[in-house]
Amino acid sequence: MTTTIRGGQLARLLGQWHSLPGRHRSPDYAALAAAVRGLLSDSRLPLGVRMPAERELAESLAVSRTTVSAAYRTLRETGHLTSRRGAGSWTTLPHGHRVVTSGLWAAGDDHDMIDLGVAASAAPAELVPAARAAAEDLPRYLGSAGYHPTGLMELREAVAAGYRQRGVPTSAEQILVTGGTQQALDLVLRLSVPAGSPVLVEAPTYPNALAALAARRARINTHGLDTATGWDGEMLLGALRQTRPRLSYVIPEFHNPTGHLMPAGLRERLVATAHSTGTELVVDESWIDLPLDGDEMPPPVAVFDRHSRVVSIGGLSKGYWGGLRIGWVRASAPLVQRLAAIRVGVDMASPVLEQLVAVRLLDQSAKILADRRAELRTRRDALVGALRVMLPEWSFVLPRGGVSLWAELDGPISSALARAAEDVGVRLAPGPRFGLDGTLERFLRLPFALPPEELTEAVRRIASVRHDLDRTARPSWRTPAVIA
């Protein structure tokens, strides 16, 4: 089903779209068409959305219908709008252009490369002692076959205790231990998303989630996040009601890649709307442990769940270490058992030793996470300082948590900049990787997980190649790399 945007909603997205006064003022229809193209390029207006009727939009914008008709005609001529008599008009890109987001790469071992493609930190100092202690715990399990499809009970209880501390009543039976958060998502999709099912995701969003959905052959719809303010509640809930997706994937805590934090009121309305539309909400809590500025965290989305519509996924990758492949699903106990049955056909169970290491780390979570947050605050401030000095034309909202900054560039150059930066030893994750349709070329995700001196040097190198892009085109093949 195609999502429809109402005239008032589009008017709010367009904001101050009129041409600026002056000698070279553009006609209003041209300014309106340019503003719509801008929304499409930023992915705030998704592709495949049915546009308002000309009369409705004219009334919402307080302009003549002739102006809207001319703007729509211009958009059709540039390939940004397709119309069919009796069916309306919907958004497109010229020549049907789309960018596939499922190409994953392997991180290289080139130590001269500053890798800003991965938003994850190195291991904490506590990892090695925890591994040694876990090895001492291992003999307790050596008398069994070692297969625990739902996970070790002591780890499930430790994860459940974390949810209870955040106000979500949870038993160990509601936890499934997985091989990282990505496997948690994959198992949920295997169970809940038959091929061709409609799903709803944010735009931008986590690239590997898009890859997992593509692997399930899901029919993906998107709703856009505003760079400055985050979720538009009316647009998000409207998209749920119109598309009635089988599943919706959201990242409410320090959203990847924008860093936004979903307000409590919208969380409650989101759960209620999902229940009314029969939608399963998959809530990715990968970043929930990383608030950086002491802000009070809103309640987890699962707090508002009364009908088992919310499935929460998380893991140790972002707060602890990505090399420890421990994740989990929090859901109803019957759903956990169904997921475990599917999991047996995938990899049987998670390694016992890694689960014991995770138990030891969670026992020390207060200190480990406090140290991690202090480290990330210092690194975030170093990145922000370097950007403001060396690339002052770029804009961004200071992320109050998580591990990355979503920068708006001074032109649609993200992919070209990523290619050029690799030539000077910096690996970047360009904006289109976080979208579905080849948009987001004016954006770039910049993680601040590396030491301050490396971040400063990375910005220096990026700035050194930025100003050559307008003069030099050097297309070449590139080997894809991991975005995490």
Layout of helices and strands, plus pairs?
Layout: H1 7-14, H2 28-41, H3 54-61, H4 65-77, E1 81-84, E2 88-91, E3 114-115, H5 127-137, H6 153-165, E4 175-178, H7 181-192, E5 198-203, H8 207-215, E6 219-226, E7 230-231, H9 233-243, E8 247-250, H10 264-277, E9 280-284, E10 310-315, E11 327-330, H11 333-344, H12 352-363, H13 365-390, E12 404-408, H14 414-423, E13 426-427, E14 429-430, E15 443-447, H15 452-466
Parallel strand pairs: 3-13, 5-6, 5-8, 8-9, 9-10
Antiparallel strand pairs: 1-2, 4-11, 6-7, 10-11, 12-15, 14-15
Molecular structure report:
The structure is a single chain. The chain has 484 residues and is an alpha/beta fold. It is 39% helix and 13% strand. It is built from 15 helices and 15 strands. The protein has helices spanning 7-14, 28-41, 54-61, 65-77, 127-137, 153-165, 181-192, 207-215, 233-243, 264-277, 333-344, 352-363, 365-390, 414-423, 452-466, and strands spanning 81-84, 88-91, 114-115, 175-178, 198-203, 219-226, 230-231, 247-250, 280-284, 310-315, 327-330, 404-408, 426-427, 429-430, 443-447. The protein has an eight-stranded mixed β-sheet, with helices on both faces. A three-stranded antiparallel β-sheet has the order 12-15-14. Strand 8 (247-250), helix 10 (264-277) and strand 9 (280-284) form a beta-alpha-beta unit. Helix 1 (7-14) packs across helix 3 (54-61), helix 5 packs across helix 12 (352-363) and helix 9 packs parallel to helix 10 (264-277). The longest helix has 26 residues, at 365-390. It is globular and about 80 Å long. It starts with 6 loop residues before the first helix and ends in an 18-residue tail after the last helix. The model is unreliable at 97-109 and 473-477 (pLDDT under 50).
